[in-house]
Specification:
The complex is a heterotrimer of chains A (346), B (76) and C (528). Chain A is α/β, with parallel strands linked by helices and 346 residues long. Chain A has one domain: SGNH hydrolase (Rossmann fold, 3-Layer(aba) Sandwich). In chain A, 51% of the residues lie in helices and 8% in strands. The radius of gyration of chain A is 22 Å and the shape is globular. Chain B is mainly α and 76 residues long. Helix content of chain B is 55%, strand content 0%. With 528 residues, chain C is mainly α. Chain C has three domains: 179 residues, no CATH class; 164 residues, no CATH class; 133 residues, no CATH class. Classes of the chains: A alpha/beta (346), B mainly alpha (76), C mainly alpha (528). Chains in contact: A-C, B-C. At the A-C interface, helix 1 and helix 9 of A face helix 1, helix 21 and helix 23 of C.
């Protein structure tokens, strides 16, 4: 009927205007150093070549220096982790990468806090949506990983802008984005280390911790949000179906952070059980025998996240374990039965 | 009818009750005017205007008010 | 699911598509009933029992009343010739009494449900003060949330019963249609409080899809969302900041907060009304007008003719008139004639009814003393201004102020707005004590301070821009609407001009609208 055509045309007009507006707002207000811009660009440039994936939350995004890791492990890798990344987000990001790349290894970072939070802040989900290319992938994630009320925030940058009156920032963004360096990818933030990874230069200023007492743990596996646990397992299953080597990885933390868990043994056991269930490796670097000596506070930016230099250190240590594993050795020799902080000093 | 006009003029001297026929619809008489008016009508004409009669149609013009009064007087 | 959510938008889109399918015309009202029941459920209420009880009571009451009226008509038709005038009169009186009883009992049941569910705790709490041992307010039943829309559909039902009793409308013989009238989803959340006579034709009728109605509806929906998301929701953090921590703010800031709240509430509630009117209009069912630029009122009485119109007219037609014509009012009027001046004496029945009406209005809003006080204050102010009218006129005469003097009118509007804002101390406080604390602070601690922290606390840059632009547009549109309805005037413009306006509003909605993870909090008036 005529009415349907009229409505359809007007709807189309509205969509076109909003899309154009969106592009303009995003161009003006998205920071010229937002890592997502470079991550996506490098992702498409490197499509078809990526063999190793690093997944997880901010501890994985900031914990590994990609260049060192690739050199040591002789591979081409990409980091698809992001802050507080919900597990369903990881699943869809991983699927997305595997679709276009010959991935043969996945390091699946674990984070009990992120898996315990039901309904993570929409802000962190937006980081996932931004990293998914293709409308189908985005819709898939939106339907499975978010509620419809979050869609305006997730799909429209205009909804996310913090301060429309920050004209100084807008001017800088536009000038930088018009520059030659931007086209070459060299204006990114001093924190961005390439291929999705991050690393700050800050150094954690706290007294190193000696021995910790194991108290009643703050962690309870019942707190894990069932949906995220299901997606965690789905990630592993997906990799196994595609004949991809998957390793569960727990990046190292400082003694101060481990102390806050009161006892991290239940966390280790929780992921250990899942690893055993699927017959995959679990490398808990908080049980690493050289944790206290190699991962000293100077390699952390705060109590939980490694810094730029720490990323290189972790990449090297990880590579050691990986190479041994590839050679067919048992990786148990790199780890203790208990977190080193719980052992009395000799 | 003149009695009614006298009451109306006393209540709201500035209104032309001869011409106005949308006293309620146009808000010329407000609810307090109406209540005061009903009180006067009851007293002067000896009728009992009731809740059932409080409809805009009955009060929109002096003519319709008079028709209502007549009906109430003759009603059994 | 609330009206202002994407989930609802999906629900509504599906409804509209099915509603206008060619073969659906005869079943449209049934579809609406199903949709209303679904909406009620999806909105989080699973206590259907109250509305079912109200529907049954309404249906039975209305039908009994109608039967009596019919009985009278039939009997008189048969026997009038053989009856003397006194006999006819007596017969009519007896039927009237029977109808009166049916009406009273129906109202008691329906109102009773509302009282127990919504006011039970309040009553119990007050009884506890007399009998502390009983500890009545602790009963679990009283902690349950009031069912959605109960304050609204209770009034709709009572109004309908009174209209049937009056003979103003035919009673609805179909209980499902009665249920639809009470449950109708666009107005169940916070009104407008519809009248059966106005709605029945459209609600149960058959509707063709009309492109004009569709586009008008969409305009209203867009405008409503604009008011709600760009103005009201952007003002909310500032208003909450002041009233959650009023001890840290000066009386000046608190009074500003009262004014902000008045504006926020207007944007919120009128936005909601536009949204639901738009949705309902597309379906072919017009809802009652609820707001008519209330802040252009020159007196508190006029304000109440322009604010929440469906509520104030309900109280006028179904409480004020019956009360002012009742025997206590008449008796008081006679007493008044003896002791008061003739002018005031004429007002006595009105004043008597007004006081009760405003007490009830306050109580309707919330089961708390502070709201009752608020209602009574509104009533007292209006009563005083009515009684003191000659004195005011004398002052005006002395100052040579004509009624149509523009400056005087602006003064009146500002004065009215300030009074309304001041009265907001009652709703904004969390308790009666809190209200008095607020009043105290305003008067005792009123030092004017033109700093951002004092005038616009907790206001981000985005909030500020949104509110300013939003209010400028809102004010401009309101001024134009005062001069005449906007709708036809908008349609006179060409396609590009109109669409630039629509798209501008839409983009502002996307830019400045508060989405949050849930699309904003619910509507302010839904708690009633």
């Amino acid at each position: 009927m005529r009415s349907i055509r009229k409505i359809g045309l007007r709807l189309l007009l509205i969509i076109v205007v909003i899309v154009v507006y969106e592009i303009g707002v995003r161009y003006a207000y998205e920071s010229y150093f937002a890592s997502v811009i470079y991550t996506n660009r490098e992702k498409s440039q490197m499509a078809g070549t990526i063999e190793t994936l690093y997944c997880g939350t901010s501890t994985m995004q900031r914990g590994i220096n990609m260049d060192v890791a690739d050199q040591e492990m002789d591979t081409i890798s990409f980091n698809i982790a992001s802050s507080d990344q919900p597990m369903d987000g990881t699943y869809f990001l991983m699927k997305d990468m595997v679709k276009d790349n010959p991935v043969n290894t996945v390091f699946l970072g674990v984070s009990p806090e992120t898996m315990s939070k039901d309904k993570l802040a929409t802000k962190w989900k937006s980081l996932v949506v931004d990293r998914l290319d293709g409308a189908e992938d985005k819709m898939d994630y939106l339907i499975h990983g978010s509620s419809i009320e979050e869609w305006p925030y997730l799909l429209l940058y205009s909804v996310r802008v913090d301060d429309y009156l920050d004209f100084k920032a807008v001017k800088k963004n536009i000038t930088k984005k018009c520059s030659k360096e931007f086209a070459e990818g060299s204006t990114h933030d001093k924190y961005y280390r390439g291929r999705g990874a991050f690393g700050r230069n800050k150094v954690y200023q706290a007294e190193p911790v000696g021995t910790l007492e194991q108290r009643k743990s703050a962690f309870n596996s019942a707190d894990i949000y069932q949906k995220y646990e299901d997606y965690f397992k789905k990630c592993i299953e997906f990799c196994q179906e595609k004949d991809i080597e998957v390793v569960l990885l727990y990046p190292p933390m400082t003694g101060n952070k481990i102390n806050k868990y009161k006892d991290i043994t239940p966390i280790h056991d929780y992921y250990g059980e899942i690893a055993q269930e699927y017959g995959v490796e679990f490398w808990d670097f908080n049980y690493y025998k050289d944790l206290k000596t190699v991962f000293s506070n100077e390699f952390f930016e705060d109590e939980k996240h490694l810094n730029g230099e720490g990323g290189k250190v972790f990449a090297r240590e990880l590579a050691k374990v990986y190479r041994a594993y590839q050679a067919g050795e048992k990786t148990d020799k790199f780890f203790l039965d208990i977190c080193p902080f719980y052992l009395a000093a000799e | 009818m003149e009695e009614l006009m006298k009451i109306l003029k006393e209540l709201r001297p500035e209104v032309d009750f001869e011409k106005e026929d949308k006293l309620i619809d146009n808000g010329v008489l407000d609810s307090f005017d109406l209540v005061a008016l009903v009180g006067e009508i009851n007293e002067v004409f000896g009728v009992e205007v009731e809740f059932e009669d409080m409809e805009p149609e009955n009060f929109n013009s002096a003519k319709s008010m008079y028709a209502m009064i007549e009906r109430l007087e003759n009603e059994v | 699911m609330t009206i202002n959510s994407l989930g609802f938008l999906l629900f509504y889109t599906a409804l509209v598509i099915i509603y206008f399918l060619p073969f659906m015309k005869r079943f449209q009202w049934m579809l609406l009933l199903i949709a209303s029941v679904s909406f009620y459920y999806l909105a989080g209420s699973n206590n259907f029992i109250y509305i079912i009880a109200a529907t049954i009571a309404t249906y039975i009451g209305a039908n009994l009343l109608e039967k009596k009226t019919q009985k009278q008509t039939e009997y008189l038709a048969e026997n009038k010739a053989n009856m003397t005038r006194p006999e006819i009169k007596t017969y009519k009186e007896s039927i009237k009494k029977e109808k009166h009883n049916i009406l009273v009992w129906s109202i008691v049941v329906i109102l009773g449900i509302l009282i127990v569910v919504k006011y039970g705790r309040f009553i119990a709490g007050n009884l506890d003060r007399i009998l502390p041992m009983a500890n009545l307010s602790d009963l679990t039943f009283f902690r349950l949330a009031a069912p959605l829309g109960i304050s609204y559909y209770t009034l709709m039902s009572i109004g309908y019963l009174m209209d049937v009793s009056k003979g103003k409308c035919q009673c609805e013989k179909n209980i499902l249609k009665t249920g639809l009238f009470l449950l109708y989803f666009p107005q169940i959340t916070q009104g407008p409080i519809g009248r059966f006579t106005d709605m029945a034709g459209n609600l149960f009728g058959q509707h063709e899809f009309s492109y004009e109605r569709f586009s008008y509806g969409c305009q209203r929906i867009l405008w409503g969302f604009f008011k709600k998301m760009v103005i009201a929701d952007r003002m909310k953090p500032m208003v909450d900041a002041i009233f959650d921590n009023y001890q840290n703010y000066s009386g000046f800031s608190i009074f500003l907060g009262c004014m902000y709240f008045a504006i926020q509430l207007y944007a919120d509630f009128s936005g909601y009304t536009d949204i639901v009117s738009g949705f309902s209009g597309i379906l072919g069912i017009e809802l009652m007008e609820n707001f008519r630029r209330p802040f252009f009122s020159t007196s508190l009485a006029e304000y109440w003719r322009r604010w929440h119109i469906s509520l104030s007219t309900w109280f006028r037609d179904y409480l004020f008139y019956p009360l002012s014509l009742s025997s206590p009012a008449v008796k008081l009027g006679r007493v008044g004639k003896k002791i008061l001046s003739p002018r005031v004496a004429k007002l006595v029945p009105s004043l008597y009814a007004m006081f009760i009406v405003w007490f009830a209005t306050g109580l309707w809003h919330d089961a708390s003393w502070r709201y009752i006080l608020w209602g009574v204050c509104n009533g007292v102010i209006m009563i005083s201004s009515m009684c003191l009218e000659p004195q005011f006129n004398w002052i005006k005469g002395k100052l040579h102020i004509a009624n149509d003097n523009k400056i005087w009118r602006v003064f009146q509007m500002v004065r009215t707005f300030l009074i309304i804002s001041m009265l907001k101390v009652f709703p904004m406080a969390v308790s009666t004590k809190g209200s008095f604390a607020l009043i105290g602070k305003i008067f005792a601690d009123f030092h004017i301070e033109f700093t951002k922290a004092a005038c616009f606390p907790e206001l981000g840059n985005n909030d500020f821009v949104a509110i300013i632009i939003g209010l400028v547009i809102f004010f401009y549109v309101s001024v134009r609407q005062e001069q005449g309805p906007m709708h036809e005037r908008i349609n006179k413009h060409s396609f590009p001009v109109r669409w630039v306006m629509y798209l501008a509003l839409l983009l502002m909605l996307v830019t400045f609208g508060v989405f949050g993870t849930e699309m904003t909090g619910g509507f302010e008036y839904a708690q009633y």
